[in-house]
């Protein structure tokens, strides 16, 4: 793909989201000398524009990833700042997770800016879910109760993993960008498993992976949306071809039907659509 | 089910069976290296070269999933006595997940008429570089395998051309990252995203380590595979 068609794709119209930022990006791209563009853009793009444009643009994907990373950065910032909320033993873990999220943020923001895009304004956050008092609280003691805090943290890390699962493919047309985003994705998966481990240590019955819909998550019904669709047992193995995964597991190892169902749902994280992700982020960001 | 032992004289035996299968399987992608110019003696080791394009990349992922599935099979068939019930429950889940990945990838080949190298499903992996008789040995081996798997997927996801295959691979990758962190935390609490797998400084800070297929297959050739595995034909971008 040529540089020009990649730039077109980066700014391609997709009716709904952030038209202003996109118009700005295009205007700015017009003024940006090629020399100022990052190497990743210049080496851009060998594959399938159809893939990249399937449900949104590259810019949409990066901005959504950024919204999720911002959300988590803000969350860890607030909880680490709340006296006595984060047990001393896990403060280093939270500090590391937050540092990695901030590294992702710096890379994503820098990429968007140097590509001529405009980074959205970072929203305000309310982790009780009341949107600054505008609606009923969902997690009223999130900043005072360690278990509630960890429950919300887990939901946010699972959210992030599911968002990346869906968004990574949208940047596949650019090898260097894909390399960066897929490596962030792997780190988010690590964070999600660790939050689950921290909850296990406090007696929660939870695996490191999402099993079925995890019974609505750590605090149902308010966390149910984070796990909706995770109980999928059919996997797409080709265009319009799906396979029932439980039935693929070997009969020889003595699994019950329930075992097979659990394993088949745990073995794959399911992508969240951009709309579902935006709604979940919107529980806390306003 | 315990895996058949492949400990005694593996190279001779396997080489013979690979040569045999190369003779009969017309679709086989097994390639015999050319002999050194005028020296007819078969001094060059045979090898398996993974195919070009998506079939090659998917074969690579299949190989990784088979390797890890059989690792857990082997461990669970004779678990060290110092593994805890918690460890065993995690290892059992990992085994089932790897089987689900392996079998689903297998379906990608059959459903789309792609050729999976006939030698890959029969390749007898070697696990003798690991200590599988102690908890520490098993968790360390599992950590090596899971971290390698994540780095391999992170390094090769971009090589997949077909959008459906890519989405499947990404769904798998999310769970492999969970596996790696879970095992690392069992091995050493709080090591889920340690600096050895996610650099904390420099230009790669915050990004999971990546491995190319060439790097991973060299590791397999050195430690885990009875026959040389080559990535020459795989796409590189």
TrEMBL record, chain B:
Signal sequence segment: 1-33
InterPro entries recorded: Ferritin-like, Ferritin-like_SF, TAT_signal
Protein's UniProt keywords contain Magnesium: no
Domain of life: Bacteria
PROSITE patterns on file: TAT
Keyword Zinc-finger tagged: no
Keywords of the record: Signal
Protein name: Ferritin-like domain-containing protein
Organism per entry: Hymenobacter gummosus
Higher taxonomy: Bacteria, Pseudomonadati, Bacteroidota, Cytophagia, Cytophagales
